[in-house]
Amino acid sequence: MANKNLIFSLLLIFIPLSIAGEFLHWNSTVIFITACLAIVPLAAYMGQATEEIAVVVGPNIGGLLNATFGNATELIIAYVALREGYIEVVKATITGSIIGNLLLVMGLSMFLGGIRYKEQEFQPITARLNASAMNLAVVALLLPTAVQFTSTGVTQEVIQRLSVAVAIVLISVYCLTLFFSMKTHTYLYDVGVAETEFPLDTEEDEGKTQPNVWFWVGILLVVTIGVAIESELLVGSLEEATKELGLTPLFTGVILLPIIGNAAEHATAVTVAMKDKMDLSVSVAVGSSLQIALFVAPVLVVLGWLIGQPMDLNFNPFELVAVTVAVWLANSISSDGRSNWLEGTLLLATYLVLALAFFFHPVTTVSAGLPNVLTPGG
Known about the structure:
Layout: H1 2-11, H2 14-23, H3 28-57, H4 59-69, H5 72-83, H6 87-116, E1 120-121, H7 124-150, H8 156-184, H9 190-194, H10 202-205, H11 213-245, H12 249-273, H13 278-307, H14 317-334, E2 338-339, H15 341-360
Antiparallel strand pairs: 1-2
Helix pairs in contact: 1-3, 2-3, 3-4, 3-11, 3-12, 5-6, 5-11, 5-13, 6-12, 6-13, 6-14, 6-15, 7-8, 7-13, 7-14, 8-13, 12-13, 12-15, 14-15
């Protein structure tokens, strides 16, 4: 863990560099890259602050804090992009986060954990529950697009009203899943709760004093502001930087941005898997996907409706195919509660194939019937 913390500490240098680049009018690509690198340690410290606060306030409130701030970095980046009118980039980031967690993170965890341990186990009941929730998320994402493609004369306003209604249902389901996991069926999640301090080893915890809650609240506030500032820089330089780097907006939204926003969480999931704590690793990967699908995406739909940006759940069909494939394969592999390095390889190979497909996907057809995704207002 010391090496990971050292890397995050070194990456902090990119915070002043990205801010200086904005004021000194550096090249957009330089600002974009430095802002991306600056977000990685900020997201890590946001997660650490949340965990430290959770230790003090107890498992119930701590669990709620983890659920709320688990994907806060991605939510902030997406909101900034949504406010600027890059609606299709926001949608791409949502689908990319789901795909990345289920295929890349879980795949790396199973592969590296499987190299060290011949076979690893996790709770199949929890895996099946999560699979059912992810199936609901896929249905919710598919239906507005299906309405658009199977009906004539459906206006953008109708699709947005449908999306807001579906978003309210998804947020309600998300709240029920929190109640289920933290209140009525906590015994199913005992392993995850017992390991809430996963950034620290048990031996390291012995003799440690209670965390200073106000100190960590201050850290959480500071890093949240930092993420907001860096998100502004990232989004502001996004259009020119992607052109200069030769990346399509779709590839940037689906592959690049989710990796940046989730880098710290990805590292944690892989680290605990290599310590034979696959229950926790799967919980981090699948739980993050569920939070994106059931909470972050619906919240962005509602926020878009409130601020006058027509954010809806009418996704690019190609993205929906990728999400469906990711959910189906992840559910299939995790259903037996066992994992090995070959299953991890299958997940990683699927992610690589999808990443290549998104890389070569033509920009002009990013969203059916819509202009280029980097045109403000979608």
